Structures are given as C-alpha cells and as structure tokens.
Amino acid sequence: MRSARRFSNSPTSVTQARRYVQEHLDGAPPDVADAVAIMTSELATNSIRHAATDFEVAVDRSDRRIRVDVTDRGPGTPVVLDAEPTAVSGRGMHIVSQLADDWGVTASGTGDAKTVWFTVTLPYKS
User: Fold this and answer.
1) Measuring CA to CA, how many Å separate 106 from each of 36, 41, 58, 113, 115?
2) Is 77 in a helix, a strand, or coil?
C-alpha cells in the first residue's frame, strides 16, 4: 500500500515526516521501525537544508519490505560523504547507506525534481 504526503520547507516538518512514516510501521520489528524513522529524518533534513523546498514523503509497504521516497525540487544529487569525526554535519547519507538494504536517487522525467529513496526488507513471518 502506497501513501504520500507533502511537507513544508520548515524544520518542524522533519518531526512531522518521521511521525507520518511511523504511522505506516505497525507490526514492524522495533529495530526496523527505528531505522526507518532515522533514515526518514535524515532525508527530510537534507530536503530542508540543501534543497530548500517543500518535499513529499511517500511510504510503500508490503508484507516483505518498506520503501520510503522523499522528493524535493532542489538541485544536486545527494552523495555519501566521509565526514571527519569532529564535523558537525555530513553524515546523513552515510547513515542511510548503512541502515538501508538499498537506496538511490531518481531524477524526475522533467529534471526539475529528484527522489531519494530507500528500502528495508522485513523479516519473514511464518
């Protein structure tokens, strides 16, 4: 089931986006739900800090996986940085790359937006 919601370019939207995604995680193991919440916060923060645009968060959940898309209209493509231990930022995409089973960036067909997405596989339930 896929669900999407738009958020404003405001720091309070990070918490709102995280809570929105958490609403779709009922029954997920706590460690999976925590990882998805953290990654959603990182991508929402990137949209606010770097894209400086409103953004949309979409959640697609099946019995086997969770996919979260964060779409904004900002320029550039997120990359994984190797931040120094004393750096105050620059770890967001590294966190996503470590916690997600897969992630990527998809440009819109018109080139005026990008979607950063990640997937997490849910454990098999018998």
Assistant:
1) 19, 19, 14, 9, 5
2) coil
Please state the separation of Cα 24 from the chain's center in Å.
14
The H or E element that residue 102 is part of is strand 102-107
Higher pLDDT, 59 or 110: 59
**Contact (Cβ atoms closer than 8 angstroms) between residue 6 and residue 69:** no
For 9, which DSSP code? S
- Domain assignments of the chain as residue spans, ordered by start: 2-121
pLDDT digits (tens, 9 = 90+) for 79-105: 666 766 665 565 778 889 999 999 999
Sign of the C-alpha dihedral, residues 24, 15, 36, 108?
Answer: positive
pLDDT tens per residue across span 39-74: 999 999 999 988 889 999 999 999 899 999 999 998
Cα–Cα distance for residue pair 21/13, rounded to 1 Å = 12
Please say whether the structural domain 2-121 has been given the CATH code 3.30.413.10: no
